[in-house]
Amino acid sequence: MPETYEDAKKDVVNFIRRINRKRKKLGLENAKYIYIIAFEEYTRPHFHLLISGGIDRDELERMWGKCDRPNTRNISPDENFLLTGLATYITQNPHGTKRWCPSKNLKKPDEPKRSYSKFRKAKVEKMAFDSSVLQAEMEKAYPGFTFLDAEVKHNGVNAAFYIYARMVKKGEKAREQSMKIICTLNLKGGCAKTTTAVSMAELLATGFKSKHGTVKPGKVLLFDNDKQGNASRLFDAYQGETESPAAAVLKNATFKGNTIRHTKIKNLDIVPCNYFMELAELEIKADTDTPQHDRYRRAFEELKNTPTFGNYDCCIIDNAPDLGMNVINALVAADEIVIPVNLDCYSLDGLEELVDQVNNVRQLNRKAHIAGVLITDYEKSDTSEAAETWLREKSGLIVFNTIIRHSKKVKDSTFYHKTPIAYSVRSGAAQGYKNFILECMGETRIPEMQKERG
Fold it and tell me: Which of 346, 325, 335 is nearest to 371 (CA)?
């Protein structure tokens, strides 16, 4: 490392000259760049270089040649506020421990005169925290339009809220909703999270008819977010020797690169997971230069905006029984959260903590909400009936009317790498999941289901 600021500046200027000579040989124009030299009282000077593409990253590291571990990475505008975080880092403390310099071929961006808004700051803050106020104010401000939904984002740089609302002219149909992302989540293991996730994925992909309603086939993505990889094993997609696609998505914030695998079931694809997810979590925790919590959200946004790449109607995320960085990423990306529970003391005791954690994550994703609690592996007894009564009347949570009855077919199906539906479509659990899908998708609340438990 250089000893002085002047040495550091000489190193970076010479490096840029070598890059431009290389670019000239490749028929490219001079690079666009910004370099930042940082120096503090007790450390040697070091620098960061933001430079336009055109030369492979491995080649750039070889050309540098000043140390054994140069660190290069691709930088893309973040989803929320472009490159404001990076710009803040570059420009903070300009007369203290940092100096930065741009290339002459950079174009200065146009500066907007003012940001137009129909609402005062206090009103926007109230709308950001109250969806009913948001809907009323938007429809009042835009007469002739009907409010559909909105996404609220907070800019940490200027401490302001930004609301992106979707509205449609009255009398016109809204465009078809984009892919819905549903998480199954519980901090306790053995609550049928994976069984619920794979059953939902298969039923939504294949479609079905029952006496309560019909679901048409749709294109479904199953995202295995549990390092145990049980959902991946079930669909014969588990590979334990190499980094899993799910870990790659967490690290790179993209589904590109063979991360999505087809299954034997038509319309159903999967993103497999294995124990390499643990290493991916450690790696992104050590990465302090880019946001850690929105990797999945950025990947899903890219997937939604690339129809030929994805074009999924629904994504089901099967989460691990913890709140690791991969699970936090899933919650930040989710639209709905389904909480499967067994009616035992440990499951019910952990519900309050789980809901608190979900509410904390909602500060990063205002659209996420708990769709409801799904009672699984139900066996009728005085204790289970008392526990159910408490859950429905005292917990303050939405509880689905559908109940998944206990069935030994569920355990048997795992040995054959099949879902309960594929293993025994007539089983009580399989029929229960069909009814749950209808209720979860809003087709019907199926009030008579409580009479069918047996």
Answer: 335
